[in-house]
Design brief:
With about 350 residues, the chain is mainly beta. The chain is built from 5 helices and 26 strands. The strands form 7 sheets. Strands 1-26-25-24 form a 4-stranded antiparallel sheet, with no helix packed on it. Strands 2-3-4-5 form a 4-stranded antiparallel sheet, with no helix packed on it. The chain has a 4-stranded antiparallel sheet with strand order 6-7-8-9, with no helix packed on it. Strand 20 and strand 21 form a beta hairpin.
């Protein structure tokens, strides 16, 4: 009764969970143009995930896995039966490849890929990580919505995501966590605990290896978090694939409007986060809202953005790389270090970007 009353008063007063405020980009998250200033990378059709195995950089685009050669060119090394949705690398360098359709396969750089058996039919795998050579952790973004319709899952208030452990030798699988709001990134800490990015709740949470919630490690992020990877300094890189803004926050609190919008408007014109924007005058935020006399307004609102954040071992932001409203390298879905280079998958910009890392900045 008290909870229902608090929810009503929050909605009436526009506070608490009903507030439409958005955290500012300041401090280590202060906007810059470092992503757009980076040299031209590798052209790719919606690159999605990226990792380092046996010293080489690999990335996925469509149904293919590519290896970056010594000249910075992506060479296809494996073709999956469906669109590749997530990658992971084992301690010994085997690459787990999730595709839809197709399930999960293990790819050895020196041989062909073998399927991971078991009775489970895998769908909507958004991220994976190994917890040992034979134990794979897999995030299921939604049990109700296909991975290609992630915007619909957000607008429907989806919270049917889960985390599974999979024995890659036998295919045996156990669900260790459920009721998650689109888990979209996963990393295993040194003590065996697991950190998950929950995109729709805009935070990072920590679970035990058995799936028990320990608590939040980051909350109220300024964007929708995607994948997490370790860096060479004991911390992490976090990718945020789309920004938050007040218009979207408001729409997320209006169920009848969302229902009508999804029924009557084409998905590319929904008031929802996007991997890219600015291609059509029919978009919900365009024209005079962004430009005046052909000039982009300062701090123009946008549905898409490019953002990668470096975190300490305690998940404190250290620095960030941005592609702002007028940029093209939006929709950063994965970020990984390899030597002195940082590799980023710009799914919205159709490019794999490489940035030279410096001690005091990138």
């Amino acid at each position: 009764m008290i909870g229902a009353l608090r929810s009503w008063t929050d909605r009436f007063l526009g506070r608490g969970a009903a507030a439409v405020t958005v955290p500012p980009l300041d401090g280590a998250l202060k906007p810059n143009s470092k992503l757009d200033e980076a040299p031209h990378g590798i052209d790719a059709d919606e690159p999605d995930d990226i990792l380092v195995a046996n010293g080489a950089t690999y990335y996925s685009a469509g149904n293919q896995l590519f290896q970056v050669d010594g000249n910075g060119v992506g060479i296809p090394v494996f073709q999956a039966p469906g669109v590749i949705t997530a990658l992971a690398v084992s301690p010994e360098g085997r690459i787990a490849i999730a595709s839809e359709p197709g399930g999960i396969r293990l790819f050895d750089c020196n041989s062909s890929a073998a399927g991971v058996g078991g009775k489970q039919t895998w769908s909507c795998i958004t991220a994976m990580a190994f917890a040992g050579e034979n134990t794979l952790l897999a995030c299921i973004g939604s049990n109700q919505t296909p991975i290609a319709e992630w915007q619909r899952d957000l607008l429907n208030g989806g919270n049917s995501g889960a985390v599974w452990t999979i024995d890659v030798n036998t295919g045996a699988a156990d669900r260790i966590a459920s009721g998650l709001a689109y888990p979209n990134g996963i990393v295993v800490e040194a003590d065996g605990n697991i950190v998950i990015s929950e995109s729709w709740r805009k935070h990072l949470i920590r679970l035990t290896s058995a799936g028990k919630l320990v608590g939040q490690v980051m909350e109220d992020l300024p964007g929708y978090p995607a994948r997490i990877s370790r860096n060479s300094r004991g911390g992490y890189w976090l990718s945020l694939f789309a920004p938050r803004n007040q218009l979207i926050e408001f729409v997320l609190r209006e169920p009848e409007y969302r229902k009508a919008m999804m029924a009557e408007v084409a998905p590319e014109f929904w008031i929802a986060p996007a991997l890219r924007s600015g291609a059509s005058f029919n978009e919900p935020m365009q024209g005079g809202a962004l430009k005046q006399m052909g000039i982009l307004k300062p701090w123009a609102p946008t549905r898409s953005y490019g953002l990668a954040v470096e975190l300490t071992a305690d998940f404190e932001p250290v620095r960030s790389l941005h592609s702002r409203a007028g940029g093209k390298r939006h929709g950063i879905t994965a970020t990984v270090e390899n030597g002195n280079r940082l590799w980023l998958a710009s799914k919205g910009g159709n490019e794999v970007v490489a940035i030279e890392l410096m001690r005091q900045g990138a």
